[in-house]
Write a structure and sequence with these properties.
- By secondary structure, this protein is mainly α.
- The protein has 18 helices and no strands.
- The protein is globular and about 50 Å long.
Length: 408
């Protein structure tokens, strides 16, 4: 049953990725249809993140009351409603309206499924889970490109909405699996999902130094991931003189590296601990910056994007996997919700700030800004590790914790 449920979770994570890469390809045409400047895309992205942030913050309360299965099914249905709503929108006000169910659904699915897999499955499955997210963000631009070739962006959202509706149906049909699998969950088969957890209020979390450090880690790691992918091509064109078509192809290397990094992380997790994989990832990332700044052919800078993806890819899933181990399974859902919310808050604040700085200082700021964020990430990880060691919670060895997946 655990294996079948895991397949359903993978499918739901494909659905989590589908909405995330539709707006970018569609916006140039949408903005013309709505009579709006292209430049407001950053503000719209920040608005979209608001609802995801809210649902992440309250995901622990929802899951504590209704369970992960029900929250996942309803949240996936909400994202389908949002996508289908976009497909029938004739002005920006309808887009803003349907962004509400789209964002609310995405935040709850992200926090809920990450915590469930971290609690009940081996470390490799967290990395593979995020690979399936990569499948979602890869296929949805295909839907949109075919729709734009036909002259109507609405059809791209419509196809994505019906696919998401199918995923919602799968998650609803699979709801009985959650109860059967939970019966095998640690620490006791008599415990239900809600009985083994408690809600940790935000005011209590903010006083916890370890949680504060992990908030910073998630905020910076996700921001690095987004900035490298969204600005890499612009840097290659404006600073290294690369043709736009070639720069776009090089950007694809970044997403390939991102997915490959998570897949390799899953393979390595059978031999190495999550902390050792994180250390390897942090060691790879500076190679991308070096390849960017060396006076070598522009194509070498493109390879730097590949290393950037390889380095940043494993960080998010491995820190997710460590959440119950760093803070205890009892409060892991509360911590998972707030760390996801902080990641969304980072996306609301830092990329727009970077865009503003680029307006004054130019695209050449790209590498120094990434270097600053990476040093901030190193500082936060180092401080968090020292804190865990003082608390006796740090374990750099391979975890031997028995999981549902291992016992199924």
């Amino acid at each position: 049953m655990a294996t079948l449920l895991l397949i359903v979770i993978y499918v739901c994570f494909v659905g989590l990725g589908i909405p995330d890469s539709l707006f970018g390809p569609a916006w140039p045409v949408m903005s013309m249809d709505f009579g709006l400047p292209v430049s407001i895309a950053g503000y719209l992205t920040a608005y979209f993140c608001v609802c995801s942030t809210l649902s992440s913050f309250f995901s622990d309360r929802l899951i504590h009351r209704f369970g992960t299965g029900r929250v996942t099914a309803v949240s996936t249905l909400l994202t389908a409603i949002g996508l289908l709503g976009y497909s029938f929108s004739s002005n920006i006000w309808f887009i803003l309206l349907f962004a509400i169910p789209l964002g609310l659904g995405a935040g709850a699915v992200d926090a809920g499924l990450n915590n469930y897999v971290a609690l009940h499955y081996k470390a490799s499955h967290i990395s593979y889970l995020h690979c399936f997210y990569g499948v979602g963000v890869t296929v949805s631009p295909v839907f949109m490109s075919l729709a734009l070739a036909g002259g109507d962006w609405h059809n791209g959202y419509r196809v994505a909405g019906f696919v998401q509706l199918g995923i919602a149906l799968v998650s609803m049909l699979a709801m009985p699996l959650w109860g059967r699998t939970a019966a095998k969950a640690t620490p006791s088969s008599a415990e239900s999902e809600t009985e083994s957890t408690r809600i940790m209020p935000f005011r209590e979390q903010i006083k916890h130094p370890g949680i504060r450090w992990v908030w910073l880690i998630f905020t910076v790691a996700v921001t690095l991931e987004v900035l490298a992918g969204s600005w890499g091509s612009t840097y290659l064109v404006n600073q290294r003189g690369m043709r736009p078509s070639m720069a776009a192809a090089m950007t694809a290397l970044y997403y390939l590296g991102l997915a490959a990094g998570r897949f390799v992380s899953g393979l390595l997790s059978h031999k190495l601990s999550a902390w050792r994989i994180i250390a390897l990832s942090l060691a790879i990332w500076p190679l991308s910056l070096i390849l960017f700044v060396l006076p070598l052919p522009p194509a070498v800078s493109g390879v730097g994007l590949l290393f950037a993806g390889l380095g940043i890819g494993p960080l998010y899933p491995n820190f997710v996997y460590l959440t119950p181990r760093n803070f205890g399974r009892e409060i892991s859902q509360s911590v998972m919700g707030t760390q996801s919310a902080m990641a969304y808050l980072g996306l609301m604040a830092i990329p727009p700030l970077f865009s503003l700085l680029v307006g004054y200082m130019g695209v050449g700021l790209f590498i120094p800004f990434l270097a600053f964020l990476f040093l901030l990430l190193l500082t936060a990880v180092g401080a968090f590790v020292r804190l865990l060691k003082r608390q006796g919670r740090f374990d750099g060895k391979r975890s031997q914790t028995k999981t549902v997946a291992q016992s199924d």
